[in-house]
């Protein structure tokens, strides 16, 4: 989940505020300096697609300098004193309780009578009676029930920092759909990466009898360590594949990914949408490699099955890194997403889709919500998505019926018309070529994401 509003959601790549050029990620390099969020990533400023100026390291997780102001030029000499100070700073910027301590605290907490179970809303923390005093000036919730402890995503405030970590929680309907799909496909283990609500749904079901599915949550939101043991949650940064809990946490993940014939694993991830697709892809490849290594003899060249939940306009970026993936028409809905367009049915139209390396025909979408099976495409498509005879595929990306443009030789959005001066289709009231801000998708100047040439590559 992540930020969606057009205009307010410049990713790293478009580098708003850094002049008209872009900011390009060069990646995670060996020996990179560290901030409290693990190894920093290497970036460079670009102008018209060319590298310009000195390369520098910045925090992988926080795009807002207010959250982490780590910065270092690539060729900068850092003195021993500064290195020592930085290490000290990194240590001091870890959470006040360790995961282990939080697990112990939880054990004590559940032994308390309901009348003594408090949750501090300001500190976002379960309180033990001895701590009440310290938090006496804070707002708190009392009589915390077992049900509340089992749905931490409802108890915790969704993080709302638009740039760094906006948490968008699945609507119940979408979460239930995902879980049913996972079960119907025969999976018994789910690696939930940045998907706390899916994890929580699985966890609470797992405590019922006859429900044999397990989940491991990997997320950067450490507040979840108050509710889950080290076998259920790892504090993890998906932009640099960093396990805050070190080798022990990595081992937990590795063990979880070990599958035998009955315990098939799938990874489900719903990352923040603000760009950095290559950083995500590189971490996901490392998780896939971890899965592959777990079984001697390998998986006959298979990939770890995966659902990557992301907006449809990132399709070409994702396929660039994962050519075996395809995009499903299912619209993933969220509870706290203010930024949907309203569709003609009155229902919110979400731009968020499921990308998967599973065979599309196996992903059965709910007929009662209007999805139907296209026998030619061999996949389920949304009701408005018409099979185009010329493209020989169901071409709509956003659920509306698209139309074929003979000049562009492809299907385009219903609201577009062919513009002879731009030599492509665009909105009727567009301004021909130009816009100085970089494109949200590819970071290049000259067009907006809606007309990004990289989107039409597929
Ligand atoms: N729809 C999901 C939540 C998606 S919101 C659900 O309902 O379960 C994005 C999630 O990614 C949040 O849980 C957030 O804490 C997590 N996240 C954000 N940045 C991250 C990072 N750098 N590494 C790991 N997780 C991150
Ligand atoms: Zn408090
Ligand atoms: Zn079709
Ligand atoms: Zn067509
Ligand atoms: Zn034009």
Automatic annotation (TrEMBL):
PROSITE patterns: DHHC, ZF_CCHC, ZF_GRF. One of its GO terms (molecular function) is nucleic acid binding. Keywords: Cytoplasm, Metal-binding, Methyltransferase, S-adenosyl-L-methionine, Transferase, Zinc, Zinc-finger. InterPro entries: Mlase_EEF1AKMT1/ZCCHC4 (IPR041370), ZCCHC4 (IPR039846), Znf_CCHC (IPR001878), Znf_GRF (IPR010666). It holds the Pfam family N6-adenineMlase. It is found in: Cytoplasm. One of its GO terms (cellular component) is nucleolus. Residues 439-454 form the CCHC-type domain. Residues 35-77 form the GRF-type domain. It comes from the Eukaryota. This is ZCHC4 protein. It comes from Eolophus roseicapilla (Galah cockatoo).
